Amino acid sequence: MSRIEIDSIRCKGCGRCITACPKDLIEFSQEINDRGYTYVDFTGHQEDCSGCTLCAVVCPDQGIEVWNFKDKQTFVNTTGLTENMTHYCPGCTHGVVHRITAEVLEELGLLDRTVGVAPVGCSVLAYEYFNIDMFEAAHGRAPAVATGAKRARPNLIVFTYQGDGDLASIGGNEILHAANRGEKITVIFVNNAIYGMTGGQMAPTSMPNQKTTTSPMGRDVETTGYPMRVSELLASLKTPAFIARGSAHDGKHSLKLKKLIRQAFEYQRDNTCFSFVEVLSTCPTNWGLSPDEADKWLETTMMPYYPLGIFKQPDVASPA
Question: Global pTM?
């Protein structure tokens, strides 16, 4: 038997925890919180909970904590994030990627010497959420800012957190040359196949036939080209690097993603190489889908084109 605590104020009612629960123990309440969201409820089901923690793993809003009364499993939100509630839309998996990144830094004992770089895009306010020192970079220029910080203070752990419009479009040259120079920074690249913050325009990563505000009839690859596979592109460079792609669309894949992000920071900690983790993420609002539908669209449409896995590793033993 386990105990789950759901913070009704933080909850945006995306329902991802409802889908994730293998025993169907979570449901929408009949109440609306002070922020105007119908939050989820777990009351009355404590005796049936196995403590699997999947509800907390998929929560984008740091709204769930799990305790196992036998002390076999525990999920408590990381100190690597502040208590600030995010501005992200309900169901957006940016919050999941934030938490995973912060958890890894906390578990590796790197929080006190980590510096993040926030770009222009949905994650423009990331400095409000990560409990570390942060820079704000001009659109697409986060790798350049990270390069300066790392070269000035090599002992720092420096990472950028960038979306697909920021990194793959206006920042395409920045990321390409930072990787080619072998800058010993870590890049978290969130690919949701669309420009999120600025109105849902087509991004370099938008899927063929995907409808956006600038491709209302669907992306025409004959005139706009095919979606860019950034991980594969960077993996083709000769310079040693760690290049991988994971996904945050469900609990199982989020746990695998955490292992990739951990590897990326371990390579930087050990001063080994440039490290890059692409994350397939959802944008329910601009995709015009519910959070549950968005998770399914990512799996059926994006994952076949953007295969998951490690595309490149340095010729050294993998970090323990």
Answer: 0.95
